[in-house]
């Protein structure tokens, strides 16, 4: 049996995060039930592993045709705003990805938004991170006065 702990270890994620993804990707799952899968090739586990690898849900995207006005404005469909949980006056973040324009909810806190983006870059454990910091600080040159 494969457990969330096994998946977390294999993908270097927290067990709590794996359980969160499993709850989102498993329809009809009851909160008190424990997640476990028959093996790494279990179809229910495949959706979760894909989400961990790609970082997003593999659900079909809705598309709408929009027209840019003479003032470079567009009217956003109500369904799109509901999907973003956006209301009048909310700020959105626009990102150009390739030839796509992506609208994202504007984060309340930029620190929370970017928290964890470099997870594992400086080491997997506290000890590895401390060693990295000591080595990199040793490379710093003293400022000349």
Task: Give a nutshell description of this structure.
The protein is mostly helical and 145 residues long. It has helices at residues 4-11, 15-25, 43-54, 78-84, 110-114, 126-138; strands at 92-97, 100-105.
Please characterize this protein's 3D structure:
The chain has 145 residues and is mainly alpha-helical. The chain has 2 domains: 4-54, no CATH class; 61-145, Pemi-like Protein 1, Chain: D (Ribbon). It has 6 helices and 2 strands. It has helices spanning 4-11, 15-25, 43-54, 78-84, 110-114, 126-138, and strands spanning 92-97, 100-105. A hairpin with a 2-residue loop joins strand 1 (92-97) and strand 2. The longest helix is centred in the C-terminal third of the chain and has 13 residues, at 126-138. The termini are far apart. The relative contact order is 0.08.
